[in-house]
Amino acid sequence: MKEINSVGIVKSKTFKCSDPIKLSCGKTLDNYDLIYETYGKLNSAKDNAVLVCHALTGNQHVAGKYKKTDKYPGWWDNLVGPGKPLNTNKFFVIGVNNLGGNEGSTGPKSINTKTKKAWGANFPIITVEDWVKTQKALIDFLGIKKLSAVIGGSLGGMQALEWNLQFPNEVSNTVIIAAAPNLTAQNIAFNEVARQSIITDPDFNKGNFYLNKNKPKRGLRIARMLGHITYLSNDVMGSKFGRKIKNKNFLYNFETEFEIESYLNYQGDKFAKEFDANTYIRMTKALDYYDPTNKNKKKLSEVFKKIKSKFLVISFTSDWRFSPSRSKEMVKGLLDNNVEVSYAEITAASGHDAFLMSDVHYHEIIKSYFNKAFKSK
Amino acid sequence: MKEINSVGIVKSKTFKCSDPIKLSCGKTLDNYDLIYETYGKLNSAKDNAVLVCHALTGNQHVAGKYKKTDKYPGWWDNLVGPGKPLNTNKFFVIGVNNLGGNEGSTGPKSINTKTKKAWGANFPIITVEDWVKTQKALIDFLGIKKLSAVIGGSLGGMQALEWNLQFPNEVSNTVIIAAAPNLTAQNIAFNEVARQSIITDPDFNKGNFYLNKNKPKRGLRIARMLGHITYLSNDVMGSKFGRKIKNKNFLYNFETEFEIESYLNYQGDKFAKEFDANTYIRMTKALDYYDPTNKNKKKLSEVFKKIKSKFLVISFTSDWRFSPSRSKEMVKGLLDNNVEVSYAEITAASGHDAFLMSDVHYHEIIKSYFNKAFKSK
Q1: What confidence category does residue B331 fall into, taking pLDDT thresholds of 50, 70 and 90?
Q2: The CATH number of domain B13-182+292-375 is 3.40.50.1820
Q3: Is the pTM of this model over 0.80?
Q4: Can you give the pLDDT at residue A3?
Q5: Confidence band (pLDDT; 50, 70, 90) for B3?
Q6: Which of A184, A197, A257 lies at the smallest CB-CB distance from B234?
Q7: Which residues contact A220 (CB under 8 A, 6 or more apart)?
Q8: Secondary structure element (H or E) that encloses residue B87, with its range
Q9: Which CATH number does the domain B187-285 belong to among 1.20.1600.10, 3.40.50.1820, 3.30.300.180, 1.10.1740.110?
Q10: I want to staple B252 with a disulfide (CB 3.0 to 4.6 A). Which of A25, A54, B130, B171 is the partner?
Q11: Alpha-carbon distance B172 to B108, whole Å?
């Protein structure tokens, strides 16, 4: 049975870019692959394209399934599809796995064509600015001159913002959800603990572990467990797990006594089997580095002068990773420049994770924003 | 030069308890040592004793120095001394390292008299209830029938509360600071990530590492780094560290780029050299287990019926580990039983760590509470 409003069965494609890219870190990649997916049809004017930027552990598989029996669809399937808030009957939606990624784009586990070995530790650190450059190369390749919209949540929101700073003439609408213009010290601190847990895992072997029997699963597991704490609000953890225990009585050992422990261990184990440790630490670095104010040398309102796109900015009340106040910083900078910006602070209990959920109010706002964007084309 | 208001040079003593203790976990310890310190003089009526309960990584060394050249005095030296808020000219103050501790009380690194080997993994899990039992044995040994006060912050506050539930007739005043009646799911989650980082460190060797060359420093380091994030508020991290960087420009590597990273790594390294991993994971377990409502079977107001002591409860506005709302739960339970309770919510930026700092307002409140307690004896 076909799932209602689903984009259906999808297939990833690969864009092989042979133009070298000079990275923020100073190094150059002579060529690279980007794995991507598209949903809906690019119209003849090629002005209905929407780029979806992914967050820390996301990828190009935004919607649909690869085969009917897949347990889960793409990570933003509740948002993207025919009749959904980002309506693929109207828009041509592009998902891409970022450079350095885990899913098929050139990254640490790819073969370095010069050495014929996996990059491993030698794969450079990639920044948000670099990603936007490579995404622009993909858009060019697809024959799109101007994006109807760029949309992203969390780290994806930073990329959506950065599109406006590097290519202000090539984007009409920008949707930034549960994001911040840069990380706080507390954000960086959590990232550093996650990185240190991976880097100090003896199986990490400085990042050169692909040929080894053991992968740095221990570190990745801790990093993911920690991540999950910051994705959920204190309140939702309380209502979901509270002090519920696994067994009738305490066992007084170091196995899981509480359901919240069980949940975190499960999430950590699952992730550690699937994700690449070298990619993970680089994704957190991209978050840390991003700062359009360039170490406070400029104010956001000054940086935003060049912006031409319209904006929708959304935050969630219980998101303590990227709190509403961080979204408001961006909104203020936009308003200072008379940018047409809509801002919604959604009352949601789920914390940062809310951006991936299908809260009716949240999705209605995105739907009407995209409807308006489509009509005004 | 003698430091002003210091208790001066102090020495730890050992209480060797030969009475067996039946622990919450079901196991029995036939005998145990508690290392403790005292400051001030026990009066002839033996009614001026104040027990200080320590938190996660604290110990018996509350005030003074062991020798003049010690870099730092005891961990609550700003509170305890002649003329200080907990005035040793008036009170006989007792600090004790809890059972299972790191500093000389019987714990995982002690020799099990039966096996003649270090306890290691076999050392039982100790609870707040167990600690209070052993503290009572120490108080008995010192010839004290009733404590003038019991005081503690964080996990120490839980012990102060528990004294009132096990020995309601043996305590006149209770001071609970930056504590909670039990942990939230988020609190437990942070503890579990810390424990997993230690337990999965290959050098942990299931807790039997004392004879090995390598100790589980990696795991302990991650646990401590994570701890420090939760001790500080988001705001104070922002004002102290913000996005300050270590070098003039980014290095784009995995060394420390930001000052907050440097701070956390330093704290982690320092702690991992000093603290016992087996003690650490047990201390976090004691936090997790404590719950006077016994898995929500009883309400706090019901549990508190037996309480006879007067209370001072203090919380700090920016403490997100044990927020003021958690203190208020205790205050409500006390008021429901017409207990004489003073409550102060101190405006402080430092987060949970504020309980160890010498905020004037905070210390004045403790000082006047103890002055009143002394006069009413």
Answers
A1: very high
A2: yes
A3: yes
A4: 63
A5: low
A6: A184
A7: A197, A198, A201, A268, A271, A272, A275, A277, A280
A8: strand B86-87
A9: 1.10.1740.110
A10: A25
A11: 33
